[in-house]
Amino acid sequence: MTFLFVIVGVVVFLIAFAAIFSDNKTLEKSYKNKLAIKNIQSTEEFTPTKSYISKNNKSGIEINEHNKQIRIFYLDQNEQIQSKIYPFSDVIESEIKVDNQSVLKTSRSSQLVGAAVGGVIAGGIGAIIGGLSGNRTKNEYIKNIDLCIKVNDFNSPLFKINFLSNINEVGVENKQGFKKDSKVVQEALRDIEYWHSIMNLIIKNNA
């Protein structure tokens, strides 16, 4: 019996050690991404007037209103932080997605392409949530909120900027997600609504 307890103890220790090692590895990667972003920002190639970097340090967006340019941070195929700079005129579409469901979209061809299932969104954080479909509305939890930006680039036509993720910096997953009325969700919605509005102005002024 004592031997069995020892075996169980060793297994539990190994599992805990693996989890801690995995968390540290994920946190280290997030830190390296953060440093890579700061290194890119330190160059004189682009001076942002407005900036947003995702909490998981995997994506970001910046604009320079004077030079009419946008810079987007993203992970390449090797999971390395890269950035691309585009003139405002290359921005084609901006779309808010909540748990991969389109909620609000603005494109060059139509200033308001759609405002989710169930009617046109009048505006505001509550309206964005209210614009979700019936099935999703019943779900009081949200896992991901993303801003999808399409640009005139055959090599990289689509970028996804994360504003809320149910996986934190150390790789721990919140399987249930966050309550719609929670502070973290409301903050993410305010941020993404602001940046979608900026994209909307850019698209409108360059249509």
What does this structure look like?
- The protein has 207 residues and is an alpha+beta fold.
- It has one domain (2-205).
- The chain is built from four helices and ten strands, in the order H-E-E-E-E-E-E-H-H-E-E-E-E-H.
- The strands form three sheets. The chain has a four-stranded antiparallel sheet with strand order 1-2-3-4, with helices on one face. Strands 6-5-8-9 form a four-stranded antiparallel sheet, with helices on one face.
- Strand 5 (91-98) and strand 6 form a beta hairpin.
- The longest helix has 40 residues, at 2-41.
* Largest sheet properties: 4 strands, antiparallel
Domain count: 1
Q: Report the structural category.
A: alpha+beta
What would you call the shape? globular
N-to-C CA distance: 76 Å
Quaternary structure of the protein: single chain
Strand content: 25-35%
Helix content: 25-40%
- Rg calculated over all Cα atoms: 20 Å
**Unreliably modeled segments:** 3-22, 112-123, 133-137
Strand elements, count = 10
Q: How would you write the strand order of the largest sheet? A: 1-2-3-4
In DSSP terms (H or I, runs of 4 or more residues), the helix count works out at 4
Mean pLDDT: 80
String of helices and strands = HEEEEEEHHEEEEH
